[in-house]
Amino acid sequence: MSEILSSAQMRGIEQQAIASGAVAGLELMERAGAGVVAQIATVFPDLPPSTALILCGPGNNGGDGFVIARLLHERGWDIDLHLLGDPARLPPDARSNYQRWAAIGPVTPWNDAKIEDLLDKMASGLVVDALFGTGLTRPMPPETARTWHGFATLLHRAQNARPQVVAVDIPSGLCSDSGRDFEGAFWADLTVSFHRAKWGHYLAPSGPPEGGAARCGLVVTVDIGLPQAPAPGSVQLVERPSSFLGKTMRAHKYGHGHALVLAGGAGKGGAARLAARAALRVGAGLVTVAASQPAIAEHAAQLTAIMLRALPDGYTLRGMLQDERLNALCLGPGLGAARAQDMVPAALWAKRATVLDADALTAFADDPAPYFAQLHDKVVLTPHLGEFRQLFPDLAARLAAPVSRGPAYSKIEAVRAAAARAGCVVLLKGPDTVIADPSGRAALHSATGANAAPWLATAGSGDVLAGLACGLMARGHSAFDAAANAAWLHAAAARAFGPGLIAEDLPEMLPQVFRELGL
Ligand SMILES: NC(=O)C1=CN([C@@H]2O[C@H](COP(=O)(O)OP(=O)(O)OC[C@H]3O[C@@H](n4cnc5c(N)ncnc54)[C@H](O)[C@@H]3O)[C@@H](O)[C@H]2O)[C@@H](O)CC1
Ligand SMILES: [K+]
């Protein structure tokens, strides 16, 4: 896991380091520019020096652009630099670098038509977007957005004969906290950020227009010499499973827990069986499906290693849960609303590690307060956006509201607020999956860019995710870790299978994923 920051956290770290005398702002800017130039060489090793069109903005992002111009010039590039705004009003460090660059080469005042014309003719080389970074809190000036829109259209047509686009810190026009497009945001092949990636690089607000991860291309973070101590309240990016997944030689099946997956009525058992299969494959020692009597024959015909019990009602579930070995529960997939209303209170009464998904969420949407009152710290809710909207309509509405000023409300803040209200871990699914607990701890798993797993958008994939989280809790993972690791494994299994994936394939890919993790 690595830390990702909001723009306010990043500003705080920078200001504190400068105020303490540990580092000067000019040094940070120099390292930022040098970091971008180094990454251009690393990511595009076959790109010979030719023309670099450098677009500088009115703040410190533009300041980085002047450093980049100077350093690329030293490496033999022809620089064509355009400044949006008045050089006299640049902040001090940006102005210093403006002056250094102006002693080397020309600074062309921003002219919409001229830039569009240049962009039109560029069939190779580099475009460096140093217009706006973490300081952007409102839509870009209309001419900037328009110029870029025209260029983007041309680039999409050109495909191979086009320059590489490099964003300094973040593609201009994106909100670095929410990943939302203030309007007309740029996009990039490579985004080089400083110290830590920002939330907005990995969040994926869906379109139109798509934001965040969809616009950043490859995201690389470079060290600029700021203190490495984690920021208070920082968010973790889930990159690999965080806790133990292997099994030891000596442990027997009861040492890995016993997951109980509740199923619904006859003909509706597929979802629960998918969850159960995932719980077993992820390493729960035993897994039992508890179904209503009319559904038993159907399950019996389909289950082998997974055990089966008849479970008529919540009263019987309370009795069953006297057995402490049943240490993790999964309720929701295929459960049905009426059965959910009966079973969920019984499951919560037992204070077990519990995943609540699908019907075990939506059956309580009409009156969520008493439901939230029963939730506890071993519970994980796994809504998709539609289910989240039913349980937390005000938070979902804030997320969907049109954005005119920043920092815009982000999925991270929404899930944190939901977890605080529900009093348990909440995992909000999507290409960007956010996990938070009531204390404000939060993690983001981004299945975007090179991590994209588009085939996960298939029936039953959410049931598998719920089963994975349940199985991991049966094995002793905390609710938060189970949720984060389940999100990672789920996407890794999908990527390992590739195109054509259906939900049944996901659990079957886990052995390969585990082998690749070295288990
Ligand atoms: N935070 C740090 O530690 C570092 C920051 N650096 C750079 O500094 C950037 C942040 O710089 P700033 O805070 O100066 O902000 P930005 O350069 O991101 O942009 C904000 C500037 O644009 C103006 N502006 C915002 N919206 C506008 C609009 N719609 N029309 C016209 N002008 C508008 C603002 O008044 C402000 O001057 C980072 O993204 C990064 O590139 C680097 O130099 C390295 C160190
Ligand atoms: K930028």
From TrEMBL:
<keyword id="KW-0520">NAD</keyword>
<feature type="binding site">
    <location>
        <position position="172"/>
    </location>
    <ligand>
        <name>K(+)</name>
    </ligand>
</feature>
<dbReference type="Pfam" id="PF03853">
    <property type="entry name" value="YjeF_N"/>
</dbReference>
<comment type="function">
    <text>Catalyzes the dehydration of the S-form of NAD(P)HX at the expense of ADP, which is converted to AMP. Together with NAD(P)HX epimerase, which catalyzes the epimerization of the S- and R-forms, the enzyme allows the repair of both epimers of NAD(P)HX, a damaged form of NAD(P)H that is a result of enzymatic or heat-dependent hydration.</text>
</comment>
<keyword id="KW-0521">NADP</keyword>
<comment type="function">
    <text>Bifunctional enzyme that catalyzes the epimerization of the S- and R-forms of NAD(P)HX and the dehydration of the S-form of NAD(P)HX at the expense of ADP, which is converted to AMP. This allows the repair of both epimers of NAD(P)HX, a damaged form of NAD(P)H that is a result of enzymatic or heat-dependent hydration.</text>
</comment>
<feature type="binding site">
    <location>
        <begin position="133"/>
        <end position="139"/>
    </location>
    <ligand>
        <name>(6S)-NADPHX</name>
    </ligand>
</feature>
<keyword id="KW-0456">Lyase</keyword>
<comment type="similarity">
    <text>Belongs to the NnrD/CARKD family.</text>
</comment>
<keyword id="KW-0630">Potassium</keyword>
<keyword id="KW-0067">ATP-binding</keyword>
<feature type="binding site">
    <location>
        <position position="61"/>
    </location>
    <ligand>
        <name>K(+)</name>
    </ligand>
</feature>
<feature type="binding site">
    <location>
        <position position="169"/>
    </location>
    <ligand>
        <name>(6S)-NADPHX</name>
    </ligand>
</feature>
<feature type="binding site">
    <location>
        <begin position="429"/>
        <end position="433"/>
    </location>
    <ligand>
        <name>AMP</name>
    </ligand>
</feature>
<feature type="binding site">
    <location>
        <position position="463"/>
    </location>
    <ligand>
        <name>(6S)-NADPHX</name>
    </ligand>
</feature>
<feature type="binding site">
    <location>
        <position position="129"/>
    </location>
    <ligand>
        <name>K(+)</name>
    </ligand>
</feature>
<feature type="binding site">
    <location>
        <position position="462"/>
    </location>
    <ligand>
        <name>AMP</name>
    </ligand>
</feature>
<dbReference type="InterPro" id="IPR036652">
    <property type="entry name" value="YjeF_N_dom_sf"/>
</dbReference>
<feature type="domain" description="YjeF C-terminal">
    <location>
        <begin position="236"/>
        <end position="517"/>
    </location>
</feature>
<feature type="binding site">
    <location>
        <position position="271"/>
    </location>
    <ligand>
        <name>(6S)-NADPHX</name>
    </ligand>
</feature>
<dbReference type="InterPro" id="IPR000631">
    <property type="entry name" value="CARKD"/>
</dbReference>
<dbReference type="InterPro" id="IPR029056">
    <property type="entry name" value="Ribokinase-like"/>
</dbReference>
<keyword id="KW-0479">Metal-binding</keyword>
<feature type="binding site">
    <location>
        <position position="384"/>
    </location>
    <ligand>
        <name>(6S)-NADPHX</name>
    </ligand>
</feature>
<protein>
    <recommendedName>
        <fullName>Bifunctional NAD(P)H-hydrate repair enzyme</fullName>
        <ecNumber>4.2.1.136</ecNumber>
        <ecNumber>5.1.99.6</ecNumber>
    </recommendedName>
</protein>
<feature type="binding site">
    <location>
        <begin position="60"/>
        <end position="64"/>
    </location>
    <ligand>
        <name>(6S)-NADPHX</name>
    </ligand>
</feature>
<keyword id="KW-0413">Isomerase</keyword>
<dbReference type="InterPro" id="IPR030677">
    <property type="entry name" value="Nnr"/>
</dbReference>
<feature type="binding site">
    <location>
        <position position="334"/>
    </location>
    <ligand>
        <name>(6S)-NADPHX</name>
    </ligand>
</feature>
<dbReference type="InterPro" id="IPR004443">
    <property type="entry name" value="YjeF_N_dom"/>
</dbReference>
<comment type="subunit">
    <text>Homotetramer.</text>
</comment>
<feature type="domain" description="YjeF N-terminal">
    <location>
        <begin position="10"/>
        <end position="232"/>
    </location>
</feature>
<keyword id="KW-0511">Multifunctional enzyme</keyword>
<dbReference type="Pfam" id="PF01256">
    <property type="entry name" value="Carb_kinase"/>
</dbReference>
<keyword id="KW-0547">Nucleotide-binding</keyword>
<comment type="similarity">
    <text>In the N-terminal section; belongs to the NnrE/AIBP family.</text>
</comment>
